[in-house]
Amino acid sequence: MLMGTFEKFGLRLAVIGLVLSICMLGRAAGPSSSDLSTYHSSTPAGYDVVVLRPAGATLSLLGLIECPDLEGARHDAQGVNSKIILADGNPLTYFPGSFSFRITASLRKTVISGPTLDINSSQDPKDFLLNLKFKLKAYDGLEAHEIQPESVQIIGVPPELPYDERIYRLNFKVNKMPVTDRLVMEVLSPEGQQLTRFHFDLL
Asked: For 42-67, what is the mean pLDDT?
């Protein structure tokens, strides 16, 4: 009888210890609130997978936003009081004046997710990579206007060499664009079909 009581007590302690261990592990593994609200100079913008017909090639599109001015900035408060505080302690009123979108278009299996879109194109897939089009739109509420890039570069392997992956860097300069605006980068096929969209929102 006494042994049964000790066994039950020991089982309860083991269960409590297991629960506490899981809780502590969850806290250690999860990001802190400060990690979630801190900006960095390079930020992933997402990805999409497209199938090119009739070639049957799988195209992965990955977006990255490059903005050195945002390194160390943090998102402070929520809702109507939401604001961005720069690393030097000053509030950010306007979008950084310079930033880039880096778009990787690859025929390799770089993304494990399935395709979200099938499109028709008569171009060879490798030529398709070299003729992508881009359109950056800035939204203020429902109003939108297009922003032209200051320059567009293909970085990495030179365009004249055949290759199954191309990396575009689109450099932009803006002047006093409110931090509440939203930026949307549209990636288009050579024929003008929308392949994916990458968002750059601060608030």
From this structure: 96
